[in-house]
Amino acid sequence: MSQIKYFSTNHKASEVTFGEALLKGLAPDKGLYMPNAIPAFTKAELNALKGKQYYEIAATVFSKFLGDEVPYEDLLAMTKDAYNFDVPLEKVVDRKYIMRLDQGPTASFKDFAGRMMGRMMQYFLKKQNVHKLILTATSGDTGSAMAHAFYGLNNINIAVLFPEKEVSDRQRRQMTTLQKNVQIIAINGKFDDAQAMVKQAFSDPDLECLNFTSANSINIGRLIPQIVYYIYAYTQLRNQSSDELEQVVFCVPSGNFGDMMGCVLATKMGLPVKRILVATNENDEFEKLMKTHKYSKIEPSKNCLSSAMNVGHPSNLARLIELYGGNMDEKGTILKEPDFAAMDAMFYAQSVSDDDTRKTITQAWNDYHVVLEPHGAVGWKCVEDYIGNEKPDANQLLVSLETAHPAKFPQAIIDAIGVDPELPASLSGLEGKEEHFDRIDGKYPAFKEYLDKKYGWRK
Ligand SMILES: *Cc1c(COP(=O)(O)O)cnc(C)c1O
User: Fold this and answer.
1) pLDDT in the model for residue 141
2) Distance between Cα 376 and ligand 1 center (Å)
3) CATH of segment(s) 86-107+222-417
Protein backbone atom coordinates (compact mmCIF):
# COMPACT_ATOMS: atom_id res chain seq x y z
CA MET A 1 0.00 0.00 0.00
CA SER A 2 1.43 3.38 -0.94
CA GLN A 3 1.54 6.06 1.71
CA ILE A 4 -1.58 8.24 1.90
CA LYS A 5 -1.01 11.98 1.67
CA TYR A 6 -3.39 14.79 2.60
CA PHE A 7 -4.51 17.44 0.11
CA SER A 8 -6.43 20.68 0.62
CA THR A 9 -10.03 20.99 -0.62
CA ASN A 10 -9.02 24.37 -2.08
CA HIS A 11 -6.36 22.57 -4.19
CA LYS A 12 -3.80 25.39 -3.88
CA ALA A 13 -1.63 24.10 -1.00
CA SER A 14 0.73 21.17 -1.43
CA GLU A 15 0.05 17.66 -0.13
CA VAL A 16 1.32 16.86 3.34
CA THR A 17 1.74 13.86 5.61
CA PHE A 18 -0.86 13.07 8.25
CA GLY A 19 1.44 14.44 10.98
CA GLU A 20 1.80 17.73 9.15
CA ALA A 21 -1.94 18.03 8.49
CA LEU A 22 -2.62 17.28 12.15
CA LEU A 23 -0.33 20.02 13.43
CA LYS A 24 -1.41 22.57 10.82
CA GLY A 25 -5.18 22.14 11.23
CA LEU A 26 -6.36 24.36 8.38
CA ALA A 27 -4.38 24.16 5.12
CA PRO A 28 -2.41 27.32 4.17
CA ASP A 29 -4.92 28.02 1.36
CA LYS A 30 -7.78 27.88 3.94
CA GLY A 31 -8.99 24.54 2.59
CA LEU A 32 -9.60 21.38 4.62
CA TYR A 33 -7.24 18.45 4.49
CA MET A 34 -8.52 15.20 2.99
CA PRO A 35 -6.76 11.89 2.32
CA ASN A 36 -5.76 11.51 -1.36
CA ALA A 37 -6.93 7.89 -1.24
CA ILE A 38 -9.43 6.15 1.00
CA PRO A 39 -8.08 2.89 2.36
CA ALA A 40 -10.54 0.01 2.08
CA PHE A 41 -11.41 -2.95 4.25
CA THR A 42 -11.83 -6.23 2.42
CA LYS A 43 -14.76 -8.41 3.40
CA ALA A 44 -12.33 -10.75 5.16
CA GLU A 45 -10.85 -7.86 7.15
CA LEU A 46 -14.31 -6.70 8.20
CA ASN A 47 -15.18 -10.23 9.25
CA ALA A 48 -11.95 -10.39 11.26
CA LEU A 49 -13.06 -7.36 13.31
CA LYS A 50 -15.94 -9.33 14.89
CA GLY A 51 -15.49 -9.49 18.64
CA LYS A 52 -12.61 -7.01 18.76
CA GLN A 53 -12.48 -4.33 21.45
CA TYR A 54 -13.18 -0.70 20.60
CA TYR A 55 -9.57 0.40 20.97
CA GLU A 56 -8.34 -2.43 18.74
CA ILE A 57 -10.73 -1.44 15.95
CA ALA A 58 -9.63 2.18 16.42
CA ALA A 59 -5.96 1.27 16.00
CA THR A 60 -6.76 -0.77 12.87
CA VAL A 61 -8.64 2.15 11.29
CA PHE A 62 -5.85 4.58 12.14
CA SER A 63 -3.13 2.33 10.79
CA LYS A 64 -4.92 2.32 7.43
CA PHE A 65 -4.84 6.11 7.21
CA LEU A 66 -1.38 6.62 8.69
CA GLY A 67 0.52 3.88 6.91
CA ASP A 68 4.15 3.97 8.03
CA GLU A 69 3.92 7.24 9.94
CA VAL A 70 3.14 5.61 13.28
CA PRO A 71 3.83 1.93 14.11
CA TYR A 72 0.74 -0.13 14.97
CA GLU A 73 1.94 -0.79 18.56
CA ASP A 74 2.18 2.96 19.19
CA LEU A 75 -1.29 3.48 17.76
CA LEU A 76 -2.64 0.72 19.95
CA ALA A 77 -1.10 2.32 23.05
CA MET A 78 -2.75 5.65 22.15
CA THR A 79 -6.17 4.20 21.40
CA LYS A 80 -6.10 2.14 24.59
CA ASP A 81 -5.35 5.25 26.62
CA ALA A 82 -7.94 7.38 24.77
CA TYR A 83 -10.82 4.90 24.82
CA ASN A 84 -11.02 3.76 28.40
CA PHE A 85 -14.83 4.02 28.57
CA ASP A 86 -17.87 2.08 27.33
CA VAL A 87 -19.72 2.53 24.03
CA PRO A 88 -23.21 1.21 24.87
CA LEU A 89 -25.52 0.00 22.11
CA GLU A 90 -29.04 0.17 23.50
CA LYS A 91 -31.77 -1.79 21.81
CA VAL A 92 -34.94 0.22 21.16
CA VAL A 93 -37.05 -2.16 19.05
CA ASP A 94 -36.43 -4.92 16.40
CA ARG A 95 -32.87 -4.39 15.21
CA LYS A 96 -33.04 -0.64 15.90
CA TYR A 97 -30.42 0.68 18.29
CA ILE A 98 -29.21 3.83 19.98
CA MET A 99 -25.42 4.12 20.18
CA ARG A 100 -24.57 6.14 23.28
CA LEU A 101 -21.42 8.15 22.69
CA ASP A 102 -21.78 9.84 26.06
CA GLN A 103 -19.60 7.82 28.43
CA GLY A 104 -16.38 9.82 28.04
CA PRO A 105 -15.02 12.33 30.55
CA THR A 106 -17.26 15.20 29.37
CA ALA A 107 -20.26 13.02 28.47
CA SER A 108 -20.22 14.22 24.88
CA PHE A 109 -19.30 12.45 21.65
CA LYS A 110 -16.61 15.11 21.16
CA ASP A 111 -14.52 13.13 23.67
CA PHE A 112 -13.96 10.45 21.00
CA ALA A 113 -12.30 12.81 18.55
CA GLY A 114 -10.63 15.13 21.07
CA ARG A 115 -8.91 12.48 23.15
CA MET A 116 -7.36 10.76 20.16
CA MET A 117 -6.35 14.02 18.47
CA GLY A 118 -4.62 15.08 21.70
CA ARG A 119 -2.66 11.86 21.95
CA MET A 120 -1.59 11.98 18.35
CA MET A 121 -0.47 15.59 18.63
CA GLN A 122 1.55 14.68 21.70
CA TYR A 123 3.13 11.79 19.76
CA PHE A 124 4.27 13.94 16.84
CA LEU A 125 5.38 16.88 19.02
CA LYS A 126 7.47 14.62 21.27
CA LYS A 127 9.18 13.14 18.24
CA GLN A 128 10.12 16.62 17.00
CA ASN A 129 10.85 17.87 20.50
CA VAL A 130 8.49 20.79 19.95
CA HIS A 131 6.01 22.37 22.34
CA LYS A 132 2.67 23.85 21.33
CA LEU A 133 0.07 26.03 22.98
CA ILE A 134 -3.52 25.38 22.04
CA LEU A 135 -5.81 28.37 22.23
CA THR A 136 -9.53 27.96 22.09
CA ALA A 137 -12.64 29.95 22.90
CA THR A 138 -15.76 28.23 24.16
CA SER A 139 -19.37 28.95 24.90
CA GLY A 140 -19.34 25.94 27.22
CA ASP A 141 -19.14 22.41 25.92
CA THR A 142 -16.36 22.33 23.37
CA GLY A 143 -13.95 23.97 25.80
CA SER A 144 -14.45 21.36 28.45
CA ALA A 145 -14.19 18.51 25.92
CA MET A 146 -10.91 19.94 24.60
CA ALA A 147 -9.53 20.74 28.09
CA HIS A 148 -10.17 17.13 29.10
CA ALA A 149 -8.82 15.80 25.80
CA PHE A 150 -5.44 17.47 26.33
CA TYR A 151 -5.34 17.24 30.11
CA GLY A 152 -2.08 15.82 31.44
CA LEU A 153 -0.40 15.44 28.03
CA ASN A 154 3.22 16.42 27.43
CA ASN A 155 4.53 19.01 24.93
CA ILE A 156 1.08 20.66 24.87
CA ASN A 157 -0.54 23.36 26.96
CA ILE A 158 -4.10 24.44 26.43
CA ALA A 159 -5.64 27.80 27.27
CA VAL A 160 -9.43 28.08 27.13
CA LEU A 161 -11.16 31.45 27.05
CA PHE A 162 -14.80 31.62 28.11
CA PRO A 163 -17.41 34.33 28.69
CA GLU A 164 -18.01 34.17 32.43
CA LYS A 165 -21.67 35.12 32.32
CA GLU A 166 -22.65 32.80 29.45
CA VAL A 167 -21.39 29.49 30.83
CA SER A 168 -23.31 27.35 33.31
CA ASP A 169 -21.87 26.47 36.73
CA ARG A 170 -21.35 22.87 35.78
CA GLN A 171 -19.75 23.70 32.44
CA ARG A 172 -17.32 26.03 34.21
CA ARG A 173 -16.47 23.48 36.90
CA GLN A 174 -15.79 20.84 34.26
CA MET A 175 -12.92 23.03 33.06
CA THR A 176 -11.70 24.82 36.18
CA THR A 177 -11.19 21.74 38.35
CA LEU A 178 -8.54 20.21 36.03
CA GLN A 179 -5.28 22.25 36.29
CA LYS A 180 -1.91 20.69 35.18
CA ASN A 181 -1.36 21.84 31.57
CA VAL A 182 -4.88 23.32 31.34
CA GLN A 183 -5.34 27.06 31.85
CA ILE A 184 -8.86 28.45 32.06
CA ILE A 185 -9.49 32.16 31.53
CA ALA A 186 -12.80 33.91 32.17
CA ILE A 187 -13.45 37.09 30.25
CA ASN A 188 -15.76 39.91 31.01
CA GLY A 189 -17.56 39.79 27.68
CA LYS A 190 -19.44 37.57 25.25
CA PHE A 191 -18.49 34.40 23.41
CA ASP A 192 -17.92 36.42 20.24
CA ASP A 193 -15.39 38.58 22.14
CA ALA A 194 -13.56 35.47 23.33
CA GLN A 195 -13.46 34.10 19.81
CA ALA A 196 -12.21 37.40 18.39
CA MET A 197 -9.43 37.53 21.01
CA VAL A 198 -8.24 34.03 20.09
CA LYS A 199 -8.33 34.90 16.40
CA GLN A 200 -6.28 38.02 16.95
CA ALA A 201 -3.69 36.16 19.01
CA PHE A 202 -3.26 33.64 16.19
CA SER A 203 -2.38 36.37 13.72
CA ASP A 204 -0.25 38.51 16.10
CA PRO A 205 3.39 38.31 14.92
CA ASP A 206 4.59 39.17 18.46
CA LEU A 207 3.20 35.88 19.68
CA GLU A 208 4.58 33.58 17.00
CA CYS A 209 7.17 32.14 19.38
CA LEU A 210 4.37 30.70 21.53
CA ASN A 211 3.75 28.21 18.73
CA PHE A 212 -0.03 28.27 18.77
CA THR A 213 -2.24 25.67 17.28
CA SER A 214 -5.99 25.24 17.26
CA ALA A 215 -7.99 22.17 18.09
CA ASN A 216 -11.07 23.00 16.12
CA SER A 217 -13.39 20.62 14.42
CA ILE A 218 -11.91 20.92 10.94
CA ASN A 219 -8.67 19.19 11.95
CA ILE A 220 -8.23 15.89 10.09
CA GLY A 221 -7.08 14.49 13.43
CA ARG A 222 -10.59 14.97 14.74
CA LEU A 223 -12.22 13.46 11.69
CA ILE A 224 -10.57 10.04 11.53
CA PRO A 225 -11.52 9.04 15.11
CA GLN A 226 -15.14 9.61 14.11
CA ILE A 227 -14.99 6.77 11.58
CA VAL A 228 -14.34 4.19 14.25
CA TYR A 229 -17.64 3.98 16.14
CA TYR A 230 -19.59 3.22 12.97
CA ILE A 231 -17.36 0.26 12.28
CA TYR A 232 -17.49 -0.79 15.92
CA ALA A 233 -21.31 -0.62 16.04
CA TYR A 234 -21.54 -2.69 12.89
CA THR A 235 -19.18 -5.40 14.10
CA GLN A 236 -21.14 -5.65 17.36
CA LEU A 237 -24.64 -5.69 15.91
CA ARG A 238 -24.37 -7.41 12.53
CA ASN A 239 -25.73 -10.87 12.04
CA GLN A 240 -22.94 -12.86 13.68
CA SER A 241 -23.86 -16.25 12.24
CA SER A 242 -23.10 -15.35 8.65
CA ASP A 243 -20.00 -14.09 6.89
CA GLU A 244 -22.26 -12.31 4.41
CA LEU A 245 -22.19 -8.58 5.11
CA GLU A 246 -25.68 -7.34 5.87
CA GLN A 247 -26.45 -3.68 5.25
CA VAL A 248 -26.89 -1.07 7.96
CA VAL A 249 -28.56 2.35 8.17
CA PHE A 250 -27.03 5.05 10.39
CA CYS A 251 -28.70 8.21 11.66
CA VAL A 252 -26.41 11.09 12.63
CA PRO A 253 -27.64 14.20 14.49
CA SER A 254 -25.54 16.85 12.77
CA GLY A 255 -24.19 20.38 13.13
CA ASN A 256 -20.77 20.92 11.56
CA PHE A 257 -20.95 17.50 9.83
CA GLY A 258 -17.75 16.12 11.32
CA ASP A 259 -19.63 13.20 12.78
CA MET A 260 -21.52 12.53 9.56
CA MET A 261 -18.27 12.71 7.54
CA GLY A 262 -16.94 9.94 9.77
CA CYS A 263 -19.85 7.80 8.60
CA VAL A 264 -19.26 8.72 4.95
CA LEU A 265 -15.59 7.76 5.21
CA ALA A 266 -16.49 4.47 6.92
CA THR A 267 -18.80 3.78 3.98
CA LYS A 268 -16.09 4.60 1.44
CA MET A 269 -13.80 2.21 3.36
CA GLY A 270 -16.21 -0.60 2.61
CA LEU A 271 -18.65 -0.66 5.52
CA PRO A 272 -21.92 -1.84 3.93
CA VAL A 273 -24.00 1.25 4.70
CA LYS A 274 -27.36 1.40 2.93
CA ARG A 275 -28.39 4.96 3.84
CA ILE A 276 -27.05 7.75 6.02
CA LEU A 277 -29.82 9.73 7.70
CA VAL A 278 -28.63 13.28 8.30
CA ALA A 279 -30.74 14.85 11.03
CA THR A 280 -30.44 18.58 11.68
CA ASN A 281 -32.41 20.95 13.88
CA GLU A 282 -34.24 23.96 12.42
CA ASN A 283 -31.02 24.97 10.66
CA ASP A 284 -32.18 23.22 7.51
CA GLU A 285 -29.55 24.24 4.94
CA PHE A 286 -28.63 20.62 4.15
CA GLU A 287 -32.19 19.41 3.69
CA LYS A 288 -32.68 22.32 1.28
CA LEU A 289 -29.46 21.52 -0.56
CA MET A 290 -30.59 17.93 -1.06
CA LYS A 291 -34.06 19.00 -2.21
CA THR A 292 -33.06 21.80 -4.56
CA HIS A 293 -29.40 21.01 -5.35
CA LYS A 294 -28.73 24.68 -4.56
CA TYR A 295 -26.89 25.78 -1.47
CA SER A 296 -27.38 28.80 0.73
CA LYS A 297 -26.12 29.04 4.28
CA ILE A 298 -28.28 30.24 7.14
CA GLU A 299 -26.94 33.44 8.65
CA PRO A 300 -27.12 33.93 11.55
CA SER A 301 -27.81 30.37 12.58
CA LYS A 302 -31.03 29.66 14.51
CA ASN A 303 -30.92 28.94 18.22
CA CYS A 304 -32.54 25.59 18.91
CA LEU A 305 -32.90 23.22 21.85
CA SER A 306 -30.15 20.98 20.44
CA SER A 307 -27.69 23.84 20.95
CA ALA A 308 -24.51 22.05 19.82
CA MET A 309 -26.07 21.72 16.36
CA ASN A 310 -26.91 25.39 15.87
CA VAL A 311 -24.90 25.63 12.66
CA GLY A 312 -26.05 27.47 9.54
CA HIS A 313 -23.02 26.55 7.40
CA PRO A 314 -21.41 23.21 8.32
CA SER A 315 -17.64 23.54 8.20
CA ASN A 316 -17.19 19.98 6.93
CA LEU A 317 -19.60 20.39 4.00
CA ALA A 318 -16.66 21.20 1.69
CA ARG A 319 -15.25 17.75 2.46
CA LEU A 320 -18.51 16.03 1.59
CA ILE A 321 -18.84 17.93 -1.69
CA GLU A 322 -15.22 17.04 -2.52
CA LEU A 323 -15.82 13.33 -1.87
CA TYR A 324 -18.74 13.40 -4.29
CA GLY A 325 -16.63 14.93 -7.05
CA GLY A 326 -17.55 18.59 -6.55
CA ASN A 327 -15.82 21.59 -5.08
CA MET A 328 -16.88 24.20 -2.51
CA ASP A 329 -14.74 27.12 -1.33
CA GLU A 330 -14.36 28.31 2.27
CA LYS A 331 -17.19 30.81 1.81
CA GLY A 332 -19.67 28.10 0.90
CA THR A 333 -19.84 28.72 -2.85
CA ILE A 334 -20.19 25.57 -4.94
CA LEU A 335 -17.58 25.97 -7.68
CA LYS A 336 -18.21 22.54 -9.15
CA GLU A 337 -21.35 20.47 -8.66
CA PRO A 338 -21.00 17.18 -6.84
CA ASP A 339 -22.66 14.01 -8.11
CA PHE A 340 -26.09 14.81 -6.69
CA ALA A 341 -27.62 11.56 -7.96
CA ALA A 342 -25.14 9.56 -5.87
CA MET A 343 -25.74 11.84 -2.89
CA ASP A 344 -29.52 11.46 -3.22
CA ALA A 345 -29.10 7.69 -3.14
CA MET A 346 -26.98 7.76 0.03
CA PHE A 347 -28.39 10.60 2.15
CA TYR A 348 -31.78 11.08 3.69
CA ALA A 349 -31.76 14.64 5.03
CA GLN A 350 -34.29 15.98 7.46
CA SER A 351 -34.62 19.09 9.57
CA VAL A 352 -36.47 18.64 12.87
CA SER A 353 -38.30 21.40 14.74
CA ASP A 354 -37.83 22.10 18.46
CA ASP A 355 -41.44 21.15 18.95
CA ASP A 356 -40.91 17.72 17.40
CA THR A 357 -37.68 17.35 19.38
CA ARG A 358 -39.59 17.76 22.66
CA LYS A 359 -42.37 15.43 21.52
CA THR A 360 -39.83 12.79 20.53
CA ILE A 361 -38.19 12.85 23.98
CA THR A 362 -41.61 12.22 25.51
CA GLN A 363 -42.61 9.56 23.02
CA ALA A 364 -39.35 7.58 23.16
CA TRP A 365 -39.77 7.41 26.91
CA ASN A 366 -43.45 6.44 26.77
CA ASP A 367 -43.07 3.88 23.98
CA TYR A 368 -39.67 2.32 24.73
CA HIS A 369 -38.46 3.62 28.09
CA VAL A 370 -35.48 5.14 26.32
CA VAL A 371 -34.15 8.47 27.63
CA LEU A 372 -33.02 10.81 24.84
CA GLU A 373 -31.59 14.31 25.14
CA PRO A 374 -32.35 16.97 22.50
CA HIS A 375 -29.55 16.07 20.01
CA GLY A 376 -30.34 12.37 20.09
CA ALA A 377 -34.05 13.15 19.84
CA VAL A 378 -33.48 15.09 16.61
CA GLY A 379 -31.87 11.91 15.30
CA TRP A 380 -34.63 9.60 16.49
CA LYS A 381 -37.37 11.76 14.97
CA CYS A 382 -35.54 11.51 11.66
CA VAL A 383 -35.39 7.71 12.06
CA GLU A 384 -39.13 7.51 12.63
CA ASP A 385 -39.90 9.60 9.58
CA TYR A 386 -37.48 7.60 7.45
CA ILE A 387 -39.16 4.36 8.52
CA GLY A 388 -42.60 5.85 7.85
CA ASN A 389 -41.67 7.24 4.44
CA GLU A 390 -39.33 4.64 3.01
CA LYS A 391 -40.68 1.55 4.78
CA PRO A 392 -37.46 -0.45 5.07
CA ASP A 393 -37.73 -4.15 5.90
CA ALA A 394 -38.73 -4.74 9.55
CA ASN A 395 -35.40 -6.51 10.06
CA GLN A 396 -33.32 -3.66 8.70
CA LEU A 397 -30.41 -3.01 11.06
CA LEU A 398 -30.39 0.65 12.05
CA VAL A 399 -28.25 2.61 14.51
CA SER A 400 -29.09 6.13 15.63
CA LEU A 401 -26.46 8.15 17.50
CA GLU A 402 -26.94 9.77 20.91
CA THR A 403 -24.23 12.43 21.11
CA ALA A 404 -24.55 13.73 24.69
CA HIS A 405 -25.66 12.44 28.07
CA PRO A 406 -29.26 13.34 29.03
CA ALA A 407 -27.98 14.66 32.39
CA LYS A 408 -26.35 17.54 30.50
CA PHE A 409 -29.84 18.81 29.60
CA PRO A 410 -31.82 18.18 32.81
CA GLN A 411 -34.47 20.83 32.19
CA ALA A 412 -35.41 19.55 28.74
CA ILE A 413 -35.73 16.02 30.12
CA ILE A 414 -37.72 17.04 33.20
CA ASP A 415 -40.09 19.08 31.03
CA ALA A 416 -40.63 16.21 28.59
CA ILE A 417 -40.85 13.16 30.84
CA GLY A 418 -40.80 14.38 34.42
CA VAL A 419 -37.57 12.52 35.19
CA ASP A 420 -34.36 14.15 36.41
CA PRO A 421 -31.64 12.05 34.72
CA GLU A 422 -28.93 10.75 37.00
CA LEU A 423 -25.51 12.36 36.58
CA PRO A 424 -22.84 10.05 35.16
CA ALA A 425 -19.77 9.60 37.36
CA SER A 426 -17.73 11.88 35.11
CA LEU A 427 -20.00 14.86 35.84
CA SER A 428 -20.71 14.29 39.51
CA GLY A 429 -18.71 15.46 42.49
CA LEU A 430 -17.58 18.64 40.71
CA GLU A 431 -19.08 20.86 43.42
CA GLY A 432 -16.65 19.50 45.99
CA LYS A 433 -13.55 20.28 43.93
CA GLU A 434 -11.51 23.46 44.10
CA GLU A 435 -11.75 25.74 41.07
CA HIS A 436 -8.79 27.46 39.45
CA PHE A 437 -9.14 30.11 36.79
CA ASP A 438 -8.05 33.64 35.97
CA ARG A 439 -10.21 36.60 35.06
CA ILE A 440 -9.28 39.17 32.45
CA ASP A 441 -10.99 41.99 30.61
CA GLY A 442 -12.71 41.02 27.35
CA LYS A 443 -10.34 43.08 25.18
CA TYR A 444 -7.32 41.90 23.22
CA PRO A 445 -4.60 43.96 25.03
CA ALA A 446 -5.56 42.30 28.32
CA PHE A 447 -5.23 38.88 26.72
CA LYS A 448 -1.86 39.66 25.15
CA GLU A 449 -0.57 40.95 28.48
CA TYR A 450 -1.85 37.79 30.14
CA LEU A 451 -0.13 35.50 27.65
CA ASP A 452 3.09 37.44 28.21
CA LYS A 453 2.98 36.93 31.96
CA LYS A 454 1.85 33.33 31.78
CA TYR A 455 3.84 31.96 28.88
CA GLY A 456 6.59 34.61 28.56
CA TRP A 457 6.52 35.42 24.86
CA ARG A 458 8.91 38.37 25.26
CA LYS A 459 11.71 36.18 26.61
C1 LIG B 1 -20.88 18.86 18.35
C2 LIG B 1 -22.13 18.14 18.65
C3 LIG B 1 -22.98 17.64 17.63
C4 LIG B 1 -22.75 17.91 16.18
O5 LIG B 1 -21.65 17.22 15.65
P6 LIG B 1 -21.02 17.67 14.27
O7 LIG B 1 -19.85 16.79 14.07
O8 LIG B 1 -20.63 19.11 14.44
O9 LIG B 1 -22.06 17.50 13.23
C10 LIG B 1 -24.09 16.92 18.01
N11 LIG B 1 -24.39 16.70 19.30
C12 LIG B 1 -23.60 17.15 20.29
C13 LIG B 1 -24.00 16.89 21.69
C14 LIG B 1 -22.44 17.88 20.01
O15 LIG B 1 -21.68 18.33 21.02
Assistant:
1) 82
2) 10
3) 3.40.50.1100
